Amino acid sequence: MHVPQVEGIGDRLEEDIRNILNRAGIxxxxxxxxxxxxxxxxxxxxxxxxxxxxxxxxxDLIGLRVVVYYQDDMDIVRTILEKTFRQVGEWSKTDNxxxxxxxxxxNGVFWVPEEYQRVYNGDISFLPIDxxxxxxxxxxxxxGWHEIEHDMRYKSPYGDDFWREDLSRTxxxxxxxxxxxxxxxxxxxxxxxxxxYTERKWEMMLKAxxxxxxxxxxxxxxxxxxxxxxxxxxxxxxxxxxxxxxxxLLRDGYHEKITYNLIVKVINDSVADYEPKLKRxxxxxxxxxxxxxxxxxxxxxxxxxxDVTPSFQLKVTLSHxxxxxxxxxxxxxxxxxxxxxxxxxxxxVEGIPDTPIDYEYHEAGYYLQILGNISLGFYKLTxxxxxxERKGVVWRTKVILERSDYxxxxxxxxxxxxPDRLIRDSFNKPRFVDEIFRKxxxxxxxxxxxxxxxxxxxxxxxxxxxxxxxxxRTLPVIxxxxxxxxxxxININRLAETVGTYAHVFxxxxxxxxxxxxxxxxxxxxxxGAVWVTFQNGEDKFYTRERIGNSRxxxxxxxxxxxxxxxxxxxxxxxxxxxxxxx
Length: 583
Fold this sequence. Notes:
Layout: H1 3-24, E1 28-34, H2 37-44, E2 62-68, H3 73-84, E3 87-93, E4 106-111, H4 114-117, E5 132-139, H5 140-154, H6 165-198, H7 202-210, H8 221-229, H9 231-239, H10 242-251, H11 260-271, H12 276-289, E6 307-318, H13 326-344, E7 359-363, E8 366-373, E9 378-386, E10 394-403, E11 407-417, H14 431-439, E12 442-444, E13 446-447, E14 453-455, H15 458-469, E15 477-481, H16 492-499, E16 504-508, H17 513-519, H18 524-527, E17 531-534, E18 540-543, H19 545-549, H20 565-582
Parallel strand pairs: 2-5, 14-16, 15-16
Antiparallel strand pairs: 1-2, 3-4, 4-5, 6-11, 6-12, 7-8, 8-9, 9-10, 10-11, 12-13, 15-17, 17-18
Helix pairs in contact: 6-7, 8-9, 10-11, 11-12, 13-14
Protein backbone atom coordinates (compact mmCIF):
# COMPACT_ATOMS: atom_id res chain seq x y z
CA MET A 1 0.00 0.00 0.00
CA HIS A 2 1.43 3.40 -1.03
CA VAL A 3 0.77 5.52 2.07
CA PRO A 4 2.42 8.72 0.64
CA GLN A 5 0.06 8.63 -2.35
CA VAL A 6 -2.99 8.21 -0.10
CA GLU A 7 -1.71 11.08 2.06
CA GLY A 8 -1.25 13.11 -1.14
CA ILE A 9 -4.93 12.63 -1.99
CA GLY A 10 -5.84 13.69 1.55
CA ASP A 11 -3.64 16.77 1.23
CA ARG A 12 -5.38 17.77 -2.03
CA LEU A 13 -8.83 17.29 -0.52
CA GLU A 14 -7.77 19.35 2.49
CA GLU A 15 -6.42 22.08 0.20
CA ASP A 16 -9.63 22.14 -1.85
CA ILE A 17 -11.87 22.45 1.19
CA ARG A 18 -9.60 25.05 2.77
CA ASN A 19 -9.67 27.19 -0.38
CA ILE A 20 -13.48 27.14 -0.54
CA LEU A 21 -13.94 27.92 3.17
CA ASN A 22 -11.36 30.72 2.94
CA ARG A 23 -13.41 32.24 0.12
CA ALA A 24 -16.45 32.08 2.38
CA GLY A 25 -14.48 33.85 5.11
CA ILE A 26 -15.54 31.70 8.06
CA UNK A 27 -13.32 30.87 11.02
CA UNK A 28 -12.22 27.24 10.87
CA UNK A 29 -9.43 24.76 11.22
CA UNK A 30 -8.97 21.68 9.04
CA UNK A 31 -6.92 18.53 9.48
CA UNK A 32 -6.47 15.43 7.33
CA UNK A 33 -5.05 11.99 7.91
CA UNK A 34 -4.65 8.72 6.04
CA UNK A 35 -4.98 5.44 7.92
CA UNK A 36 -1.75 3.50 8.31
CA UNK A 37 -1.57 -0.18 7.26
CA UNK A 38 -1.60 -1.11 10.96
CA UNK A 39 -4.71 1.00 11.63
CA UNK A 40 -6.43 -0.49 8.56
CA UNK A 41 -5.66 -4.02 9.75
CA UNK A 42 -6.99 -3.22 13.23
CA UNK A 43 -10.28 -1.91 11.89
CA UNK A 44 -10.82 -4.67 9.34
CA UNK A 45 -10.33 -7.30 12.04
CA UNK A 46 -13.58 -6.13 13.61
CA UNK A 47 -16.71 -8.11 12.68
CA UNK A 48 -18.91 -6.90 9.82
CA UNK A 49 -16.27 -5.98 7.23
CA UNK A 50 -16.04 -7.99 4.03
CA UNK A 51 -17.23 -8.41 0.44
CA UNK A 52 -20.52 -10.16 1.22
CA UNK A 53 -23.93 -8.73 0.37
CA UNK A 54 -24.56 -7.58 3.94
CA UNK A 55 -20.97 -6.78 4.86
CA UNK A 56 -19.70 -3.23 5.14
CA UNK A 57 -16.60 -1.59 3.71
CA UNK A 58 -14.20 0.85 5.31
CA UNK A 59 -15.13 4.39 4.28
CA ASP A 60 -12.54 6.44 6.15
CA LEU A 61 -9.22 5.43 4.61
CA ILE A 62 -8.86 9.20 4.26
CA GLY A 63 -10.35 11.34 7.00
CA LEU A 64 -10.74 15.10 7.35
CA ARG A 65 -11.87 17.10 10.33
CA VAL A 66 -13.29 20.60 9.94
CA VAL A 67 -13.56 22.57 13.17
CA VAL A 68 -15.66 25.75 13.08
CA TYR A 69 -15.68 28.51 15.67
CA TYR A 70 -19.40 29.27 15.56
CA GLN A 71 -22.28 26.80 15.88
CA ASP A 72 -24.26 28.14 12.90
CA ASP A 73 -21.27 27.62 10.59
CA MET A 74 -21.79 23.85 10.93
CA ASP A 75 -24.79 24.05 8.56
CA ILE A 76 -22.93 26.33 6.15
CA VAL A 77 -19.93 24.00 5.88
CA ARG A 78 -22.30 21.06 5.57
CA THR A 79 -24.06 22.68 2.59
CA ILE A 80 -20.74 23.59 0.95
CA LEU A 81 -19.50 20.00 1.19
CA GLU A 82 -22.78 18.57 -0.12
CA LYS A 83 -22.66 20.86 -3.15
CA THR A 84 -18.96 20.37 -3.80
CA PHE A 85 -18.54 16.60 -3.46
CA ARG A 86 -20.70 13.55 -4.16
CA GLN A 87 -22.11 12.29 -0.85
CA VAL A 88 -22.57 8.66 0.17
CA GLY A 89 -25.70 8.19 2.29
CA GLU A 90 -26.75 10.69 4.92
CA TRP A 91 -24.94 12.65 7.61
CA SER A 92 -24.40 10.89 10.91
CA LYS A 93 -25.07 13.22 13.81
CA THR A 94 -25.16 13.15 17.58
CA ASP A 95 -28.54 12.10 18.95
CA ASN A 96 -29.08 13.44 22.44
CA UNK A 97 -31.97 12.58 24.72
CA UNK A 98 -33.49 15.11 27.12
CA UNK A 99 -31.53 13.52 29.97
CA UNK A 100 -28.23 13.15 28.11
CA UNK A 101 -25.56 15.38 26.60
CA UNK A 102 -22.85 14.25 24.19
CA UNK A 103 -20.20 16.10 22.24
CA UNK A 104 -22.04 17.56 19.22
CA UNK A 105 -20.72 16.50 15.81
CA UNK A 106 -21.62 15.68 12.19
CA ASN A 107 -19.95 12.95 10.15
CA GLY A 108 -20.36 12.63 6.37
CA VAL A 109 -18.89 10.28 3.76
CA PHE A 110 -18.10 11.39 0.20
CA TRP A 111 -16.67 9.76 -2.91
CA VAL A 112 -13.06 10.58 -3.70
CA PRO A 113 -13.18 12.33 -7.12
CA GLU A 114 -12.04 10.08 -9.96
CA GLU A 115 -9.32 12.53 -10.99
CA TYR A 116 -7.83 12.15 -7.48
CA GLN A 117 -8.10 8.36 -7.49
CA ARG A 118 -5.91 8.16 -10.60
CA VAL A 119 -2.87 9.36 -8.64
CA TYR A 120 -3.01 6.15 -6.58
CA ASN A 121 -1.45 3.18 -8.38
CA GLY A 122 -1.47 0.74 -5.47
CA ASP A 123 -3.87 -2.19 -5.29
CA ILE A 124 -6.39 -2.23 -2.46
CA SER A 125 -9.07 -4.14 -4.38
CA PHE A 126 -8.36 -7.19 -2.22
CA LEU A 127 -9.46 -5.24 0.87
CA PRO A 128 -13.03 -4.18 1.73
CA ILE A 129 -12.28 -0.45 1.34
CA ASP A 130 -14.43 2.07 -0.55
CA UNK A 131 -12.97 4.95 -2.62
CA UNK A 132 -14.44 7.41 -0.13
CA UNK A 133 -13.33 9.88 2.49
CA UNK A 134 -14.96 10.87 5.76
CA UNK A 135 -15.44 14.42 7.00
CA UNK A 136 -16.11 15.21 10.64
CA UNK A 137 -17.66 18.58 11.50
CA UNK A 138 -17.58 19.99 15.00
CA UNK A 139 -17.32 23.28 16.85
CA UNK A 140 -14.17 24.52 18.52
CA UNK A 141 -15.84 24.18 21.93
CA UNK A 142 -16.30 20.45 21.48
CA UNK A 143 -13.04 19.77 19.64
CA GLY A 144 -11.05 18.63 22.68
CA TRP A 145 -13.97 16.88 24.31
CA HIS A 146 -14.49 14.57 21.35
CA GLU A 147 -11.11 12.99 22.01
CA ILE A 148 -11.75 12.71 25.73
CA GLU A 149 -15.22 11.24 25.31
CA HIS A 150 -14.12 8.86 22.55
CA ASP A 151 -11.09 7.48 24.39
CA MET A 152 -12.18 7.73 28.02
CA ARG A 153 -15.85 6.80 27.75
CA TYR A 154 -16.88 4.98 24.59
CA LYS A 155 -13.56 3.34 23.70
CA SER A 156 -12.60 2.44 27.24
CA PRO A 157 -11.47 -1.22 27.50
CA TYR A 158 -12.93 -1.40 31.02
CA GLY A 159 -16.55 -0.84 30.01
CA ASP A 160 -18.99 0.46 32.63
CA ASP A 161 -16.61 -0.47 35.45
CA PHE A 162 -14.41 2.52 34.61
CA TRP A 163 -17.07 5.18 35.36
CA ARG A 164 -18.82 6.15 38.55
CA GLU A 165 -22.39 7.20 37.82
CA ASP A 166 -22.10 10.54 39.64
CA LEU A 167 -18.90 11.46 37.76
CA SER A 168 -20.46 10.45 34.45
CA ARG A 169 -23.28 12.89 35.20
CA THR A 170 -20.69 15.56 36.00
CA UNK A 171 -19.05 15.00 32.61
CA UNK A 172 -22.46 15.34 30.96
CA UNK A 173 -22.97 18.68 32.70
CA UNK A 174 -19.63 19.89 31.29
CA UNK A 175 -20.82 18.97 27.80
CA UNK A 176 -24.12 20.73 28.44
CA UNK A 177 -22.25 23.89 29.40
CA UNK A 178 -20.16 23.68 26.22
CA UNK A 179 -23.32 23.51 24.11
CA UNK A 180 -24.71 26.46 26.04
CA UNK A 181 -21.46 28.36 25.38
CA UNK A 182 -21.83 27.82 21.62
CA UNK A 183 -25.33 29.26 21.53
CA UNK A 184 -24.58 32.03 24.05
CA UNK A 185 -21.67 33.21 21.90
CA UNK A 186 -24.00 33.65 18.93
CA UNK A 187 -26.49 35.53 21.06
CA UNK A 188 -23.78 37.88 22.33
CA UNK A 189 -22.69 38.82 18.81
CA UNK A 190 -26.29 39.30 17.67
CA UNK A 191 -26.82 41.80 20.48
CA UNK A 192 -23.48 43.44 19.72
CA UNK A 193 -24.43 43.86 16.05
CA UNK A 194 -27.75 45.38 17.10
CA UNK A 195 -25.96 47.81 19.41
CA UNK A 196 -23.52 48.99 16.72
CA TYR A 197 -26.35 49.34 14.21
CA THR A 198 -28.22 51.57 16.65
CA GLU A 199 -25.05 53.60 17.20
CA ARG A 200 -24.51 53.81 13.41
CA LYS A 201 -21.05 52.28 13.68
CA TRP A 202 -21.22 50.48 10.37
CA GLU A 203 -17.86 48.70 10.31
CA MET A 204 -18.33 47.32 13.82
CA MET A 205 -21.88 46.30 12.93
CA LEU A 206 -20.59 44.32 9.93
CA LYS A 207 -17.90 42.62 12.02
CA ALA A 208 -20.33 41.55 14.76
CA UNK A 209 -23.10 40.61 12.32
CA UNK A 210 -21.09 38.37 9.95
CA UNK A 211 -18.23 37.13 12.18
CA UNK A 212 -15.85 36.60 9.25
CA UNK A 213 -12.08 36.77 8.85
CA UNK A 214 -12.08 40.40 7.78
CA UNK A 215 -8.92 42.05 6.55
CA UNK A 216 -7.67 45.05 8.54
CA UNK A 217 -8.57 47.42 5.70
CA UNK A 218 -11.26 49.77 7.13
CA UNK A 219 -14.69 50.39 5.65
CA UNK A 220 -14.37 53.21 3.13
CA UNK A 221 -15.52 56.66 4.23
CA UNK A 222 -17.64 56.98 1.05
CA UNK A 223 -19.63 53.89 2.06
CA UNK A 224 -19.99 55.12 5.64
CA UNK A 225 -21.36 58.46 4.41
CA UNK A 226 -23.77 56.67 2.06
CA UNK A 227 -25.10 54.53 4.94
CA UNK A 228 -25.38 57.59 7.20
CA UNK A 229 -27.51 59.30 4.57
CA UNK A 230 -29.59 56.26 3.51
CA UNK A 231 -31.10 54.43 6.45
CA UNK A 232 -32.99 51.99 4.18
CA UNK A 233 -29.72 50.66 2.75
CA UNK A 234 -28.12 50.42 6.19
CA UNK A 235 -31.11 48.50 7.51
CA UNK A 236 -30.86 46.01 4.61
CA UNK A 237 -27.21 45.39 5.41
CA UNK A 238 -28.11 44.76 9.03
CA UNK A 239 -31.13 42.53 8.41
CA UNK A 240 -29.83 40.37 5.54
CA UNK A 241 -29.46 36.64 6.06
CA UNK A 242 -25.89 35.64 7.01
CA UNK A 243 -25.83 32.26 5.17
CA UNK A 244 -27.16 33.94 2.01
CA UNK A 245 -24.33 36.47 2.20
CA UNK A 246 -21.68 33.76 2.62
CA UNK A 247 -23.00 31.80 -0.37
CA UNK A 248 -23.12 35.03 -2.40
CA LEU A 249 -19.50 35.60 -1.37
CA LEU A 250 -18.65 32.19 -2.84
CA ARG A 251 -20.42 33.06 -6.08
CA ASP A 252 -18.50 36.34 -6.29
CA GLY A 253 -15.53 34.48 -7.73
CA TYR A 254 -11.92 34.89 -6.70
CA HIS A 255 -10.98 37.27 -3.90
CA GLU A 256 -7.67 37.16 -2.07
CA LYS A 257 -9.03 38.74 1.09
CA ILE A 258 -12.40 39.64 2.58
CA THR A 259 -12.79 43.31 3.37
CA TYR A 260 -15.70 45.32 4.72
CA ASN A 261 -15.93 47.04 1.35
CA LEU A 262 -16.19 43.66 -0.41
CA ILE A 263 -18.93 42.39 1.90
CA VAL A 264 -20.97 45.55 1.30
CA LYS A 265 -20.55 45.11 -2.47
CA VAL A 266 -21.62 41.45 -2.36
CA ILE A 267 -24.66 42.18 -0.21
CA ASN A 268 -25.68 45.10 -2.41
CA ASP A 269 -25.22 43.11 -5.63
CA SER A 270 -26.77 39.79 -4.62
CA VAL A 271 -28.74 39.88 -1.38
CA ALA A 272 -30.13 43.28 -0.40
CA ASP A 273 -33.56 44.35 -1.63
CA TYR A 274 -34.26 48.07 -1.48
CA GLU A 275 -34.70 51.14 -3.70
CA PRO A 276 -33.03 50.29 -7.09
CA LYS A 277 -31.74 53.82 -7.56
CA LEU A 278 -29.95 53.68 -4.22
CA LYS A 279 -28.60 50.22 -5.03
CA ARG A 280 -27.08 51.51 -8.26
CA UNK A 281 -25.51 54.42 -6.43
CA UNK A 282 -23.93 52.16 -3.80
CA UNK A 283 -22.81 49.73 -6.53
CA UNK A 284 -20.90 52.55 -8.26
CA UNK A 285 -19.28 53.59 -4.98
CA UNK A 286 -18.15 50.00 -4.32
CA UNK A 287 -16.91 49.60 -7.90
CA UNK A 288 -14.74 52.71 -7.60
CA UNK A 289 -13.28 51.53 -4.29
CA UNK A 290 -12.57 47.88 -4.91
CA UNK A 291 -9.51 46.79 -6.82
CA UNK A 292 -8.96 43.07 -7.37
CA UNK A 293 -5.32 42.13 -7.29
CA UNK A 294 -3.95 38.79 -8.43
CA UNK A 295 -2.03 37.06 -5.63
CA UNK A 296 1.68 36.53 -5.90
CA UNK A 297 2.87 33.00 -5.27
CA UNK A 298 6.27 32.44 -3.81
CA UNK A 299 6.65 28.70 -3.41
CA UNK A 300 10.03 27.13 -2.89
CA UNK A 301 10.67 24.41 -5.47
CA UNK A 302 11.53 20.98 -4.14
CA UNK A 303 12.81 18.42 -6.65
CA UNK A 304 11.90 14.73 -6.50
CA UNK A 305 12.27 11.69 -8.78
CA UNK A 306 9.85 12.24 -11.66
CA ASP A 307 7.38 10.12 -13.62
CA VAL A 308 6.50 10.87 -17.26
CA THR A 309 2.81 11.16 -18.21
CA PRO A 310 1.44 12.07 -21.67
CA SER A 311 -0.61 15.29 -21.75
CA PHE A 312 -1.60 15.68 -25.44
CA GLN A 313 -1.16 13.75 -28.67
CA LEU A 314 -2.21 14.54 -32.24
CA LYS A 315 -1.40 12.94 -35.59
CA VAL A 316 -3.15 14.61 -38.54
CA THR A 317 -2.80 15.71 -42.14
CA LEU A 318 -2.92 19.44 -42.83
CA SER A 319 -5.63 20.57 -45.24
CA HIS A 320 -4.37 21.65 -48.65
CA UNK A 321 -5.86 24.52 -50.61
CA UNK A 322 -5.28 23.84 -54.36
CA UNK A 323 -5.01 27.59 -54.88
CA UNK A 324 -1.94 27.72 -52.62
CA UNK A 325 1.54 26.28 -52.91
CA UNK A 326 2.10 23.26 -50.63
CA UNK A 327 5.50 24.57 -49.56
CA UNK A 328 3.91 27.91 -48.64
CA UNK A 329 1.46 26.07 -46.36
CA UNK A 330 4.38 24.15 -44.85
CA UNK A 331 6.22 27.40 -44.07
CA UNK A 332 3.04 28.95 -42.64
CA UNK A 333 2.68 26.03 -40.21
CA UNK A 334 6.35 26.41 -39.24
CA UNK A 335 5.77 30.11 -38.46
CA UNK A 336 2.85 29.27 -36.15
CA UNK A 337 4.91 26.70 -34.24
CA UNK A 338 7.98 28.95 -33.98
CA UNK A 339 5.78 31.88 -32.96
CA UNK A 340 4.31 29.79 -30.17
CA UNK A 341 7.80 28.91 -28.90
CA UNK A 342 8.89 32.56 -29.08
CA UNK A 343 5.79 33.58 -27.15
CA UNK A 344 6.55 31.09 -24.40
CA UNK A 345 10.16 32.28 -24.20
CA UNK A 346 9.62 35.99 -24.87
CA UNK A 347 11.11 36.96 -21.48
CA UNK A 348 13.99 34.49 -21.85
CA VAL A 349 15.38 34.66 -25.39
CA GLU A 350 14.72 36.50 -28.67
CA GLY A 351 15.35 35.62 -32.29
CA ILE A 352 13.95 32.11 -32.47
CA PRO A 353 13.95 31.35 -36.24
CA ASP A 354 10.56 31.04 -37.93
CA THR A 355 11.96 29.06 -40.88
CA PRO A 356 13.06 25.40 -41.02
CA ILE A 357 16.71 25.75 -39.96
CA ASP A 358 18.68 24.15 -37.12
CA TYR A 359 18.67 26.04 -33.82
CA GLU A 360 19.31 25.27 -30.15
CA TYR A 361 18.87 27.21 -26.91
CA HIS A 362 19.73 25.79 -23.50
CA GLU A 363 19.42 27.66 -20.21
CA ALA A 364 18.66 26.57 -16.64
CA GLY A 365 15.04 25.36 -16.65
CA TYR A 366 14.59 25.79 -20.44
CA TYR A 367 15.57 23.79 -23.50
CA LEU A 368 14.64 24.43 -27.14
CA GLN A 369 15.91 22.51 -30.16
CA ILE A 370 14.86 22.95 -33.81
CA LEU A 371 15.91 20.64 -36.64
CA GLY A 372 14.83 21.84 -40.07
CA ASN A 373 15.49 21.36 -43.76
CA ILE A 374 13.35 23.30 -46.23
CA SER A 375 14.41 21.28 -49.27
CA LEU A 376 13.49 18.00 -47.58
CA GLY A 377 10.31 19.50 -46.16
CA PHE A 378 11.19 18.55 -42.59
CA TYR A 379 10.74 20.47 -39.33
CA LYS A 380 11.05 19.23 -35.74
CA LEU A 381 10.78 21.35 -32.60
CA THR A 382 11.46 20.07 -29.07
CA UNK A 383 10.72 22.35 -26.11
CA UNK A 384 11.15 21.62 -22.39
CA UNK A 385 10.62 23.92 -19.42
CA UNK A 386 10.29 23.70 -15.67
CA UNK A 387 6.95 24.70 -14.17
CA UNK A 388 7.47 27.91 -12.20
CA GLU A 389 4.52 27.26 -9.84
CA ARG A 390 4.35 23.50 -9.29
CA LYS A 391 7.38 22.02 -7.63
CA GLY A 392 9.12 19.18 -9.43
CA VAL A 393 7.18 19.48 -12.73
CA VAL A 394 8.73 19.70 -16.21
CA TRP A 395 6.61 20.16 -19.35
CA ARG A 396 7.77 18.82 -22.73
CA THR A 397 6.46 19.42 -26.26
CA LYS A 398 7.63 17.78 -29.48
CA VAL A 399 6.13 18.59 -32.90
CA ILE A 400 7.14 17.23 -36.31
CA LEU A 401 6.08 18.48 -39.77
CA GLU A 402 6.81 16.34 -42.83
CA ARG A 403 6.02 17.52 -46.36
CA SER A 404 5.55 15.11 -49.27
CA ASP A 405 2.40 15.06 -51.41
CA TYR A 406 0.73 16.45 -48.29
CA UNK A 407 1.85 17.75 -44.90
CA UNK A 408 1.71 15.45 -41.89
CA UNK A 409 1.82 16.92 -38.38
CA UNK A 410 2.54 14.94 -35.24
CA UNK A 411 2.37 16.54 -31.77
CA UNK A 412 3.48 14.77 -28.57
CA UNK A 413 3.28 16.52 -25.20
CA UNK A 414 4.00 15.10 -21.76
CA UNK A 415 4.96 16.24 -18.29
CA UNK A 416 7.41 14.91 -15.72
CA UNK A 417 6.14 15.01 -12.15
CA UNK A 418 6.53 13.70 -8.62
CA PRO A 419 4.69 10.33 -8.53
CA ASP A 420 3.34 10.97 -5.03
CA ARG A 421 1.52 14.18 -5.94
CA LEU A 422 -1.61 14.65 -8.01
CA ILE A 423 -1.22 16.88 -11.08
CA ARG A 424 -4.43 18.61 -12.06
CA ASP A 425 -5.40 19.84 -15.51
CA SER A 426 -2.59 17.86 -17.11
CA PHE A 427 -4.18 18.03 -20.57
CA ASN A 428 -1.90 20.46 -22.40
CA LYS A 429 -2.81 21.28 -26.00
CA PRO A 430 -0.30 23.81 -27.43
CA ARG A 431 -1.84 27.00 -28.80
CA PHE A 432 -0.24 26.54 -32.22
CA VAL A 433 -2.57 23.56 -32.77
CA ASP A 434 -5.58 25.88 -32.70
CA GLU A 435 -3.82 28.47 -34.87
CA ILE A 436 -2.97 25.88 -37.53
CA PHE A 437 -6.52 24.54 -37.31
CA ARG A 438 -8.04 28.00 -37.87
CA LYS A 439 -5.67 29.23 -40.60
CA UNK A 440 -4.90 26.01 -42.48
CA UNK A 441 -7.12 23.28 -41.11
CA UNK A 442 -6.35 19.59 -40.79
CA UNK A 443 -7.98 16.23 -41.37
CA UNK A 444 -8.19 12.89 -39.67
CA UNK A 445 -9.61 10.98 -42.66
CA UNK A 446 -12.27 13.74 -42.78
CA UNK A 447 -11.85 17.45 -41.94
CA UNK A 448 -11.85 18.36 -38.25
CA UNK A 449 -14.55 20.88 -37.26
CA UNK A 450 -15.55 22.86 -34.19
CA UNK A 451 -19.18 22.52 -35.23
CA UNK A 452 -21.04 19.19 -35.17
CA UNK A 453 -21.47 17.27 -38.43
CA UNK A 454 -25.23 16.91 -38.98
CA UNK A 455 -26.46 13.39 -39.84
CA UNK A 456 -29.97 13.36 -41.34
CA UNK A 457 -30.06 10.81 -44.19
CA UNK A 458 -29.42 7.08 -44.55
CA UNK A 459 -26.50 7.78 -46.87
CA UNK A 460 -24.91 9.97 -44.19
CA UNK A 461 -25.45 7.22 -41.60
CA UNK A 462 -23.71 4.72 -43.89
CA UNK A 463 -20.83 7.13 -44.47
CA UNK A 464 -20.51 7.63 -40.71
CA UNK A 465 -20.38 3.85 -40.19
CA UNK A 466 -17.63 3.52 -42.79
CA UNK A 467 -15.69 6.37 -41.23
CA UNK A 468 -15.89 4.83 -37.76
CA UNK A 469 -14.61 1.50 -39.14
CA UNK A 470 -11.68 3.19 -40.94
CA UNK A 471 -8.45 1.97 -39.29
CA UNK A 472 -6.54 5.06 -40.43
CA ARG A 473 -8.68 7.24 -38.15
CA THR A 474 -6.64 8.38 -35.12
CA LEU A 475 -9.15 10.47 -33.15
CA PRO A 476 -12.37 9.54 -31.28
CA VAL A 477 -15.90 10.01 -32.62
CA ILE A 478 -18.77 11.44 -30.56
CA UNK A 479 -22.33 10.96 -31.81
CA UNK A 480 -25.07 12.83 -29.94
CA UNK A 481 -28.69 11.97 -30.76
CA UNK A 482 -31.14 14.86 -30.89
CA UNK A 483 -33.55 15.07 -27.96
CA UNK A 484 -37.31 15.59 -28.22
CA UNK A 485 -37.17 18.07 -25.35
CA UNK A 486 -34.67 20.81 -26.24
CA UNK A 487 -34.30 21.69 -22.54
CA UNK A 488 -32.77 18.25 -21.92
CA UNK A 489 -30.52 18.28 -24.99
CA ILE A 490 -26.79 18.02 -24.43
CA ASN A 491 -25.12 21.25 -25.55
CA ILE A 492 -23.52 19.66 -28.61
CA ASN A 493 -22.36 22.99 -30.09
CA ARG A 494 -20.45 23.84 -26.94
CA LEU A 495 -19.02 20.31 -26.87
CA ALA A 496 -17.82 20.61 -30.48
CA GLU A 497 -16.21 23.98 -29.73
CA THR A 498 -14.35 22.40 -26.82
CA VAL A 499 -13.10 19.13 -28.34
CA GLY A 500 -13.52 19.67 -32.10
CA THR A 501 -9.77 20.01 -32.69
CA TYR A 502 -9.03 16.55 -31.26
CA ALA A 503 -12.34 14.64 -31.63
CA HIS A 504 -15.00 14.26 -34.34
CA VAL A 505 -18.45 15.42 -33.21
CA PHE A 506 -21.66 14.37 -34.98
CA UNK A 507 -25.32 15.17 -34.29
CA UNK A 508 -27.97 12.65 -35.38
CA UNK A 509 -31.23 14.49 -36.12
CA UNK A 510 -34.56 13.33 -34.70
CA UNK A 511 -35.86 12.34 -38.12
CA UNK A 512 -32.86 10.06 -38.67
CA UNK A 513 -33.43 8.05 -35.48
CA UNK A 514 -35.66 5.40 -37.21
CA UNK A 515 -32.94 4.91 -39.84
CA UNK A 516 -30.31 4.46 -37.13
CA UNK A 517 -32.55 1.92 -35.36
CA UNK A 518 -32.47 -0.15 -38.55
CA UNK A 519 -28.66 0.01 -38.66
CA UNK A 520 -28.04 -0.67 -34.96
CA UNK A 521 -29.12 -2.90 -32.08
CA UNK A 522 -30.67 0.01 -30.17
CA UNK A 523 -34.34 0.92 -29.81
CA UNK A 524 -35.81 4.37 -30.45
CA UNK A 525 -36.18 4.91 -26.70
CA UNK A 526 -32.54 3.99 -26.08
CA UNK A 527 -31.23 6.21 -28.89
CA UNK A 528 -33.26 9.36 -28.21
CA GLY A 529 -31.11 11.87 -26.33
CA ALA A 530 -28.22 9.40 -26.08
CA VAL A 531 -24.51 10.02 -26.63
CA TRP A 532 -22.22 7.40 -28.15
CA VAL A 533 -18.43 7.61 -28.17
CA THR A 534 -16.06 5.33 -30.07
CA PHE A 535 -12.30 5.47 -29.76
CA GLN A 536 -9.66 4.65 -32.33
CA ASN A 537 -8.84 1.35 -30.57
CA GLY A 538 -12.43 0.14 -31.04
CA GLU A 539 -13.56 0.86 -27.46
CA ASP A 540 -17.15 2.14 -27.24
CA LYS A 541 -19.07 4.11 -24.62
CA PHE A 542 -22.86 4.47 -24.81
CA TYR A 543 -24.72 6.90 -22.55
CA THR A 544 -28.51 6.75 -22.46
CA ARG A 545 -30.68 9.78 -21.75
CA GLU A 546 -31.33 8.41 -18.26
CA ARG A 547 -27.64 7.99 -17.54
CA ILE A 548 -26.90 11.51 -18.75
CA GLY A 549 -29.72 12.84 -16.55
CA ASN A 550 -28.16 11.15 -13.51
CA SER A 551 -24.75 12.75 -14.04
CA ARG A 552 -23.31 14.62 -11.08
CA UNK A 553 -20.00 16.30 -10.35
CA UNK A 554 -17.61 14.38 -8.10
CA UNK A 555 -15.93 17.65 -7.23
CA UNK A 556 -18.43 20.35 -8.12
CA UNK A 557 -16.61 23.62 -8.75
CA UNK A 558 -19.83 24.90 -10.31
CA UNK A 559 -22.05 24.20 -7.29
CA UNK A 560 -23.01 27.86 -6.99
CA UNK A 561 -23.45 28.50 -10.70
CA UNK A 562 -26.82 28.58 -12.43
CA UNK A 563 -27.80 26.35 -15.34
CA UNK A 564 -28.51 22.72 -16.16
CA UNK A 565 -26.30 20.98 -13.62
CA UNK A 566 -26.60 17.41 -14.93
CA UNK A 567 -25.88 18.52 -18.52
CA UNK A 568 -22.80 20.43 -17.40
CA UNK A 569 -21.71 17.47 -15.28
CA UNK A 570 -22.07 15.00 -18.15
CA UNK A 571 -20.35 17.28 -20.66
CA UNK A 572 -17.56 17.92 -18.16
CA UNK A 573 -17.01 14.18 -17.66
CA UNK A 574 -17.21 13.48 -21.39
CA UNK A 575 -14.59 16.13 -22.17
CA UNK A 576 -12.39 14.73 -19.41
CA UNK A 577 -12.79 11.23 -20.87
CA UNK A 578 -11.81 12.45 -24.36
CA UNK A 579 -8.77 14.22 -22.92
CA UNK A 580 -7.73 11.15 -20.93
CA UNK A 581 -8.01 8.88 -23.95
CA UNK A 582 -6.04 11.40 -26.00
CA UNK A 583 -3.14 10.94 -23.61
